[in-house]
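Homework help board

Subject: predicted structure for assignment chain

Our instructor gave us this sequence and asked us to write out the predicted structure in token form, then describe one feature. I got the tokens but I'm not sure how to describe them. Can anyone check?
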Amino acid sequence: MAALSSITFRASPPAEDAVIAQHFYAMWRDLGIPPDSIQPNWRDIALEFITTARQTLDYQAFVAEVEGAIVGSAGGQRYGGLYPLILSPQNRQYGYIWGVYVEPAYRKQGIATRLTQLVVEHLKNVGCTRAVLNAAPQARSLYAALGFCPGNLMELDLTVDSTGEKQ
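My token output:
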């Protein structure tokens, strides 16, 4: 384990997008998603998404580095929206944080906290008025400690019937 003072935090250039994509994949695997539930071309999908977000949504990733190795990453961008964005940007310009990941050997050292803070700073700098994210249950306390409030995201699983059986 490295002390937080020996960890370098920095913005990640496009040349490292493959590492960001790999961490995104690893995050889903850590959450228990089986490999056969992940598209085989996951890397290409992630890289295309990141490229488009860099070009159109002010996407920026940040990494944590120890002795030249990237051990954690997080990204954020202006939120494109799920519905027409008719409110003026100064009143509602959401930023979305995604892909916060730290390799298992480096967890519980404040790395995810610092990466999230860097993404929040970036979102403020590009004019966002709020930051949103979807948190895994085990990460909710981390985000709450940073001031994130539980949201009103409500979900309905459309793959099960009203009795809870898979359709």
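Reply (TA_rk): Your tokens look well-formed. For the description, you could write something like this. The two ends are 46 Å apart (CA to CA). That's the kind of observation they're looking for.
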